[in-house]
Input
Amino acid sequence: MNRIQQLITANFDRYDGKDIEAYIRLGGFTAIKKAVEQGSDYVIDELKLAGIKGRGGAAYPTWKKWDAGRRRVAEQKFVICNADEGEPGTFKDREILKKDPYKVIEGMMISAYIFGAKKGFVYIREEYWDIQKTFKKAIEKANEAGYLGEGILGTDFDFTLEVFSGAGAYVCGEGSSLIESMEGHAGRPRIKSPRIGEKGYLGYPTLVNNVETLAGVTRILEMGASEYARYGTEKSKGTKVISVSGNVNRPGVYEVPFGVSLREIVYDVAGGVENDRPVKFLQLGGISGPLVPGSALDTKYAYETLDEKGFTVGSGSVVVVDDNNRIIDYLVSVSDFFYHESCGKCTPCREGKRQLTRLLKKFVDGTARLEDVNAIEKVANTMKHASFCGLGQTAPTAILSALKYFMPELWQLVEEGVHENVAEGEWK
Amino acid sequence: MIQVTIDNKTIEVPKDYTVLQAAKSLHIDIPTLCYHPAVKIQGNCRICMVQELDGKLIPACSTKVRDGMQIATNTKFVREMQKGVLELILANHDQDCLKCVRNGHCELQELCERFNISKNVLEENQLSAHAVDNSNPSIVRDYAKCIKCGRCVEICNETQKVNILARAHRGTSFDVLPYYDKPLGDTECVFCGQCIKVCPVGAIYEKNDTEKVLDALEDRDLHVIVQIAPAVRVSIGESFGMAPGEITTGKIVASLKRLGFDRVFDTNFTADLTILEEGSELIDRIQNGGVLPMITSCSPGWINYIEGFAPEALKHLSTCKSPQQMFGALSKTYYAEKEEMHPSKVYTVSIMPCTAKKFEAGRPEMNSYGYIDVDAVLTTRELAQLIRLAGIDFANIEEESFDAPFGLTTGAGAIFGATGGVMEAALRTVYEVLTGENLENIEFEAVRGLDGIKEASVAIGEKTVKVAVAHGLGNASKILKDIQQGVSDYTFVEIMACPGGCIGGGGQPIERHEDTKQHRIDAIYQVDAMMPYRKSHENPAIKALYEEYLGAPLGEKSHHLLHTHYRPRLKK
Output
């Protein structure tokens, strides 16, 4: 099995993102043609066969999400591409958006066709301002070429697309916060139900998909689901675009088939660890994901094998950390991020982050005590189980992993701190 | 109806019930903080988490029941999580409970007792919060106490449509603040105090004026008199363990006398006076082509609202001062003269169900010939505090009667305390004055009750008059919109800023049950029914006042003392 595949990323570096003609020459818009010719049921069946799941991190089967909403009757319906890629360590959507924008646009067309939406938005994070420009241009060209607008492909399918700029809040990657922010409100998650599939943007049914999912859908229809499903494992079909960063020799975005091992990702795909140091741990699925100790490097990168061990694919990021790094420093930086990015709406996330940040600092200062370890665990668990949205529920994931795999190192910090204080006569 | 099982008991509940409601019907009280029956469900405090059969936690307040759902509300996991949330709140809450205005009746305190909170593993009282905001005469916000439940935001923005409060910033800087972080006094806040009523803790409360009043009572040179608003008598008992809606008029009078007030009077008297002035104004507008509909002006929260948000509609307002201010004006003129005292020696205190009354009393135009009409305003809650301070056993104190000359009142004055009351009282008088006939059925059921907007068509002689009543500023704003657009066909409109009218005022004891307001309303109408006189114009003391002093309604003296003017509240 090849460790690197190019299905979704096949067009990378093969055309200028704004050149629609080049995209067409590369086989562009054959997927939407197929969808329009063969109909919705065909598309849903194909997605089911391909087994593609939400690639933003939630891993909900795409066919289910699309099937649930397509028959809903409403005055208006919207599709949104979630390009608010804000998960630290995750930058694969950036590459897809930049290097093959039309694949995403085509994916949106397909989603709109199935869902029954006439209007779509590409919600691109503010920091990707250059990509926003590319997209605006690409949309303009698609309008001119008749791929967007009225009567697309000579049918009665109308679809217009617009770029919407995020304003820099991590939580807006969460679907309902994203929509709140589009409506001009502060980015904070909405209460469910109703879900956004029923009442989303402006109160109308809204289908939100991640960039890679949409590009994946285009690719699946292009090549055929059975062909796509030949890649990957039985339960995790196809490929995943991953972002590898940290202490590796060749950080970057790679497309790998599900089923490669983590070790292969680190050593073969990303060229091994800097200065040949041992891997201390990986963090998978973004900053909200679990830590994978170096001892688990032979785990296969697939939904089922990772889930089994409490790990996750998540957004597809792989941060590699070597043994030069202290676990506490890593946790502090993770915690600082969430301290800043919690929206503040619910108690566990807002107050939990306040406390976790305070408690972790004690380990750095050498003032942590036995009970602080318990306090961390307690707060982290309250956040995990009681928070309003995914942000708060997953913010303590790294900490909980550290308690599982790196407890001795944390204990050591407590002990050193106690000794120091005894030496200074402050410890009674 | 669908079946759910909660803590091993299966019941049938309506399918739109939440888990919280279903549990309540089984007499299980799931802890809540951001939930309040008067505001939209928010699901943000996360203390109502309970467990489903699959082990997952769900918020009880915002999760609808499903058929066959199985819920556990008191497993170890649930308790640990609920307690975990509670401890997180406590770690960032100013715990000076003994000095807190809500000590003893704080929802957070009650939960701490319930969860047997002893030692928090987290460090406590390390707060960084905004400074206390006491920038206005009515409402204080203490940010170190705020638990960010958002109830005040919801009541202000959704129920009252005043839109002063906002959820500001994010993460650990998240705060509930007046917009743009302005002090409350620099906003269009109407001081209705509904935010106080929904605050679960001591983060919002009225500006306390009890010391001021105690000092006045101590001052031998001052003649300190007090008036009691209609709504106070049916609610203050709740502060002393009595049931909502117990009529405690005589006990309040007795308590005020024990506290040292020289005379105890009834605002119902000037409510009657208001009816004569306002009724006459209405008749005048109807007969002489004045601006209609005319809108009542007794509710200072409402006055603040229209001045701030719809100044172009001010011409619709009755020019009558509120009963509190009419009383104040008379106290410094008629009463001072009658008692042969210099007005500066008369110190007039009001006991009001209202926080906006504090602001109203301080309006510069509210003075009569140079002497401020009302010197101090206490809320119902502050009076309860004074009564407790004096060690008075309120529930058992022997009842006493109001003093003359402002003690003889009618049922029409009494019903000012409930939504629709001013309208009903006015109709009783206007009908008889306009037709010269005796009104047989004086109870106008159509304007009573808790519906947000009530309408009625009343035949007065050959004329049919269309009237409307709204309570709560959200409802008021709907009627106001029609008036602004010139499409309103009402002749007379009553508006009260607070939901339920004065009985639901921002200065009232904090309601702990959903039916509390209804009990208070029932009591108001009971007071009315017990009165020998039930029409304001039949009040012999009012007649005497006009004969002795005022002359006629809308006369020159009335104009100076009992009427006022309004102006737009400009945004600062």
Observations:
- The mean pLDDT of chain A is 95.
- The beta strands of chain A are 78-83, 119-124, 149-152, 157-165, 206-210, 239-246, 252-257, 279-284, 291-293, 317-322.
- Residues 117 and 152 of chain A are 13 Å apart (CA to CA).
